[in-house]
């Protein structure tokens, strides 16, 4: 059965970020992907130079109108990432509402890209738009720790806090929430990042299936760009294949990420040469070379189940 994704994200001519990071892996896994590029840059902004254009809310509307006029605006999934303009984000909200009305079973995967490590890198006036308009529409949400704290107004300093914050995010709308990275210490040591996942699937009879998981993800000492976009795309794909099992969906997603990152850092270090720090160009994700791992990832990151319950009245 054909499965079609509308992905509204940034685009770069060279390298992998936004739609460039999400489209190829989704296509490899059998999804049709319609891309709207919120920006078109020569390369990501971690390089010394970049040039390009930014799509306005009006231009986004024009593109969507064209799709609508041809009656090809039927989607199974919507995927959104980085946006730095409130009017653009509000136009995205309008499009999602219209597409959800046309297809009530449509799944919206939202990466609420706002900042990291205690600092926002989008204008602060985007936060209320995400909080009040975007997150309530989302079915799957992939914030990092800082973004989850911004959305809920709660700090995460323990595993219990992480669980409480995910529950608060569920109450805002999403059925599945994955905290893609946190600053919490890993039981496996300093070389691991801790991520959390939660699903709260509401059944028509008012009962629910709930699952909370934790993942220890190996750290790699380099700055990669586009990994968050790849994570959200892979979570979309693997939750499609495992809709009731967040544990296996997250294991496959994290394992794909690890394979791609390890292939990238190995290549970057070889090209840079001994003792040299790889450049942003050398650290571009080795996406095409990882095609086999994307299609059929060897599970090398296993999740721990923290809580599971079913048939509780909501």
Provide the residue-averaged pLDDT.
Answer: 95
Topology-level CATH name: UDP-N-acetylmuramoyl-L-alanine:D-glutamate ligase
Overall body shape: globular
CATH superfamily: Ribokinase
Please give a structural write-up.
By secondary structure, the protein is an alpha/beta fold. The chain has a single domain, classed as 3-Layer(aba) Sandwich (UDP-N-acetylmuramoyl-L-alanine:D-glutamate ligase), CATH 3.40.1190. Helices cover 38% and strands 23% of the residues. It has nine helices and twelve strands. The chain has helices at residues 19-28, 57-69, 86-102, 126-134, 145-152, 159-172, 227-241, 246-272, 291-295, and strands spanning 4-12, 32-41, 52-54, 77-80, 107-110, 115-116, 119-120, 140-141, 176-182, 192-202, 208-218, 303-310. It has a ten-stranded mixed sheet with strand order 3-2-1-4-5-8-9-10-11-12, sandwiched between helices. It has a two-stranded antiparallel ribbon with strand order 6-7. A hairpin with a 5-residue loop joins strand 10 (192-202) and strand 11 (208-218). Helix 1 packs parallel to helix 7, helix 3 (86-102) runs parallel beside helix 4 (126-134) and helix 5 crosses helix 6. The longest helix has 27 residues, at 246-272. The protein is globular and about 55 Å long. The two termini are 33 Å apart.
């Amino acid at each position: 059965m054909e499965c079609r994704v509308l992905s509204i994200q940034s685009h770069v001519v060279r390298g992998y970020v936004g739609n460039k990071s999400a489209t190829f892996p989704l296509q490899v896994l059998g999804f049709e992907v319609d891309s709207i590029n919120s920006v078109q840059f020569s390369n990501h902004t971690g390089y010394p130079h970049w040039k390009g254009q930014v799509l306005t809310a009006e231009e986004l509307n024009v593109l969507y109108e064209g799709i609508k006029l041809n009656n090809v605006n039927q989607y199974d999934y919507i995927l959104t990432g980085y946006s730095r303009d409130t009017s653009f984000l509000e136009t995205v909200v309008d499009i999602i509402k219209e597409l959800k009305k046309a297809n009530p079973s449509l799944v919206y995967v939202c990466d609420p890209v706002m900042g990291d490590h205690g600092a926002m890198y989008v204008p602060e006036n985007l936060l209320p738009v995400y909080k009040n308009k975007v997150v309530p529409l989302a079915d799957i949400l992939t914030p990092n720790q800082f973004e989850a704290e911004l959305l809920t107004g709660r700090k995460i300093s323990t595993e219990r806090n992480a669980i409480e914050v995910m529950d608060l995010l569920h109450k805002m709308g999403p059925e599945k929430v994955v905290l893609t990275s946190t600053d919490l210490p890993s039981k496996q040591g300093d070389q691991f990042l801790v991520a959390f996942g939660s699903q709260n699937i509401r059944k028509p009879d008012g009962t629910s299936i709930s699952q909370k998981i934790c993942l220890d993800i190996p750290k790699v000492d380099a700055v990669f760009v586009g990994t968050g976009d790849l994570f959200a795309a892979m979570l979309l794909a693997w939750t499609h294949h495992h809709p009731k099992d967040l544990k296996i969906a997250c294991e496959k997603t994290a394992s794909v990420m690890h394979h791609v990152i390890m292939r990238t850092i190995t290549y970057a270090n070889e090209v840079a040469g001994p003792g040299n720090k790889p450049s942003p160009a050398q650290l571009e994700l080795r996406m095409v070379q990882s095609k086999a791992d994307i299609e059929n990832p060897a599970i090398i990151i296993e999740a721990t189940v923290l809580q599971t319950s079913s048939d509780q009245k909501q």
